[in-house]
Automatic annotation (TrEMBL):
Identification of the protein by name: Nicotinamide-nucleotide adenylyltransferase
Protein localization: Cytoplasm
Family label: Belongs to the archaeal NMN adenylyltransferase family.
The organism's taxonomic lineage, starting at the top: Archaea, Methanobacteriati, Methanobacteriota, Stenosarchaea group, Halobacteria
Catalytic activity: beta-nicotinamide D-ribonucleotide + ATP + H(+) = diphosphate + NAD(+)
Pfam families listed in its UniProt record: CTP_transf_like
GO cellular component annotations of the record: cytoplasm
Main location class: cytoplasm
Organism whose genome encodes this protein: Haloferax mucosum ATCC BAA-1512
InterPro entries per the UniProt record, alphabetical: Cyt_trans-like (IPR004821), NMN_Atrans_arc (IPR006418), Rossmann-like_a/b/a_fold (IPR014729)
UniProt domain Cytidyltransferase-like: residue ranges: 4-132
Length: 181
């Protein structure tokens, strides 16, 4: 059986990694959807799709499962988003998500959805990891070692600090439900 798990993975952290480990016990193959693939260089979405593919591929390489990382760009039309995902991904029988909108859209489209517990959510959250990166506090312990290596290789900390400190006044969170800056 092949599963599908989508996230923005900004960055891919130990909560995602634990979820993939649990999914790997249930499926033979897993598609990792790199969500909001067109977004990068913003405080909420600092890393490009290509950089996130590197993070995910390297981090999951130790798991005994075949994975495919597939970039999925956002659409302005939720009603056709599942078809869009299916058009970009290897076929899958089950979708894994804890995101209420994603769960609703897959369920309405007749795709089985499985949820997972949230692992140590107080700290294992992309927002917390990015905040620590901005403040030069320990973020490495919240991500797999391979992800920390990629972040360093691409100058990710400097980029995030730069896009956070530059004038973001034109970018009002809530302007766009799918891509708040
Ligand atoms: N600690 C966690 N344990 C289990 N699942 C998680 C955890 N953190 C995120 N997820 C799930 O992984 C999927 C992708 O999440 P996403 O990439 O948005 O991470 P996030 O930590 O919620 O990031 P952000 O804070 O940037 O929104 C979602 O279904 C989300 O609920
Ligand atoms: N209309 C759309 O483009 C649409 C709808 C639902 C989810 N998504 C995307 O799916 C991903 C879901 O991942 P998260 O659980 O990390 O939010 C995000 O990248 C989100 O933008 C997009």
């Amino acid at each position: 059986m092949r599963g599908f798990y989508i996230g923005r993975f900004q960055p891919y952290h130990n909560g995602h990694h634990q979820m993939v480990e649990e999914i790997a016990a249930e499926v033979d193959e897993l598609v990792l959807g790199i969500g909001s693939a067109g977004d990068s260089h913003s405080p909420r979405n600092p890393f490009t799709a290509g950089e996130r593919i590197m993070m995910v591929n390297k981090a999951v390489s130790n798991f005994d499962i075949t994975t495919y990382a597939v970039p999925i760009e956002d659409l302005d039309r939720n009603s056709v988003w599942v078809s869009h995902v299916q058009s970009m991904s290897p076929a899958f029988e089950v979708a894994y998500s804890n995101n209420p909108l994603v769960i609703q859209l897959f369920t309405e489209a007749g795709v089985e959805v499985r949820q997972s517990p949230m692992f140590n959510r107080e700290v294992l959250e992309g927002t917390e990891v990015r905040q620590r990166m901005i403040e030069d506090r320990d973020w490495e312990s919240l991500v797999p070692d391979e992800v920390a290596d990629v972040v360093r290789e691409i100058g990710g900390i400097e980029r995030l600090q730069q896009v956070t400190s530059s004038d973001r006044s034109e970018c009002v969170a809530g302007d766009d439900d799918v891509n708040p800056c």
